Amino acid sequence: MKPTDPDLPIIGFAAWSGTGKTTLLEKLIPELTKRGLRLAVLKHAHHDFDLDQPGKDSWRLRQAGANQVLIASARRHAHLTETPQGEPSLAKLDRRALDLILVEGFKHDPIPKIALHRAALGKPLPEVRPEELLAVASDVPLDLTVPQLPFNEIGIADFIEARLAASSPDDGAPQSAAPLSVEQARGRILKALIPHPHHQTLPLAHCLGRVLAGDLTSPVNVPPHANSAMDGYGLCGADLACGQWQLVGEVLAGHPSPRRVAPGEAVRIMTGALLPAGVDTVVMREQAVEEAGVVRFGAPITRGQNVRQAGEDLAAGTVAIPHTTRLRAPELGLAASLGYRELTVLTPLKVALFSTGDEVQAPGEPLRPGAIYDSNRVTLRALIERAGGEVVDLGILPDQQAAIESALSLAAAECDLVLSSGGVSVGNADFIRNALAALGTVDFWHIQMRPGRPLAFGKLAGTPFFGLPGNPVAAVVCFLQFVLPALHALQGRSWQPWRLKARALEPIQSRPGRSEFLRGIAEQDANGQLVVRTTGPQGSGILSSLARANCLIEILPSQGAIYPGEAVWIHPLQGLLG
Ligand code: AMP
Ligand code: MG
């Protein structure tokens, strides 16, 4: 193999056949691309391998004597070339578009390698020259002089990422000017935040949508006593042989019966009524024949049936609602069922919000020439409040450094987070950049995503700051990807994207290497399968299309154009937008 660019990392994998190398690489590749790495794979094949097929036009042209054939379409191309010297050349790879080359096979070539080992195969470690062995991934503990990794894609990806970071000129983190993947940017943001939740106690009726501050434990058994789950007849399940039961009374919910029920006796009992002493089994009314004070049953009886046991829902002392749960109708009902009249919830985070731009005007007055109405402040306020924040509205700031500086320093002192929109795109950002630099540390990030590539993130006197793009849809997409997780983190709550797989109903154009978020409309098709189409034109200023969308379609950096029928991720918007 010809040497490659010395700056382009290359890592090989050595394994006996049967180890599951390709299966592991199949998982490792998406894991690495998710972390923002652009990969090529060099795969060894037997020397007569051919992608081409006899009889195909390209095959016939090669047979006719063309040493190289480039089969190309708008979507992909393959360069078929004879290598009589027996040496594949890495120069064929487009190195500008790569961060890493993974090599499968070529075990005798002097490249750094990770050896893969699985105990079940019963083989020793694959042979690798010691100077080339970087690490061993195995499913059993081994005595090694190199790092041992777990036999899974996460452990290996962590190792590769750390190795790339260690060999890059800075501390491994891309420079602020270098593009970041969505995950990288989110990871950096979450790392920079320190949770600082505050509490307040509120009556139950004011707790809807608030976040529970501590675990809510049950002070009692729920239900407190064994009771009937049916309208029917209560009897002792140890005494089923008698075949008929003498009726000795009736027990209604809320009216416990003091009388003990003896063997051979039964009581009529209603749903929710406490089981009298001696009763542990209930037969539903529909299975009973009652005649002259005697009851018989037309179905087999199992001891204990149709009874709600004491503590069956919740035992006294167990956690009924875990801390950081957002309180909705069922949680509020549950708290009431435990006897709570008020709850300790998180105090909403204070979020300072402002729009920037000389052209941006508050609605209510006729538009000045060249102006647009400020929609971002309204949209963002709703998103902030839905996420458990309280807005401190700083209005619209002109494109002037001094005005922005004074608003920012006030906001940073008073609030838990500062959020702005506009003024972060290239060529537009200088005044805001200078204002931010004067007050704290802020990076302008180029994120590999669309919409919403430019994002400013930093701290102003310890208070986190987000500068969102001005385009209304980009501002919302960035909010959902970065600010929402940050608000969760500041409240000490975990956050996970909620994604579902759906089949695309139409072709979707996307550029590999970046995450694309499109406004989508998802629904079930006739077979109950989730399918999705876009809302149409995707300009990042078209807010009306976000109003029509019920999901965002996420096209991953590793995906190119999507064809109808292909699976894509969708992020349901239900519950996120207000
Ligand atoms: P900027 O990021 O400031 O370059 O703005 C990008 C685009 O978003 C421009 O077309 C702005 O006019 C528009 N824009 C900026 N702020 C707002 C806002 N608050 N509401 C609606 N559109 C805005
Ligand atoms: Mg602007």
From TrEMBL:
Q: Which InterPro entries does its entry note?
A: MoaB/Mog-like_dom_sf (IPR036425), MoaB/Mog_dom (IPR001453), MobB_dom (IPR004435), MoCF_biosynth_CS (IPR008284), MoeA-like (IPR038987), MoeA_C_domain_IV (IPR005111), MoeA_C_domain_IV_sf (IPR036688), MoeA_linker/N (IPR005110)
Which PANTHER family does this chain map to?
MOLYBDOPTERIN BIOSYNTHESIS PROTEIN (PTHR10192), MOLYBDOPTERIN MOLYBDENUMTRANSFERASE (PTHR10192:SF31)
Listed name of the protein: Molybdopterin molybdenumtransferase
Write the lineage as a comma-separated list. Bacteria, Pseudomonadati, Pseudomonadota, Gammaproteobacteria, Aeromonadales
Q: Does the keyword Ribosomal protein apply?
A: no
Which reaction equation describes what this protein catalyses? adenylyl-molybdopterin + molybdate = Mo-molybdopterin + AMP + H(+)
Superkingdom of origin: Bacteria
UniProt xrefs under Gene3D superfamilies: MoaB/Mog-like domain, MoeA, C-terminal, domain IV, Molybdopterin biosynthesis moea protein, domain 2, Molybdopterin biosynthesis moea protein, domain 3, P-loop containing nucleotide triphosphate hydrolases
Q: Which cofactor does it need?
A: Mg(2+)
Task: Specify the species.
Answer: Aeromonas diversa CDC 2478-85
The family classification in the record reads: Belongs to the MoeA family.
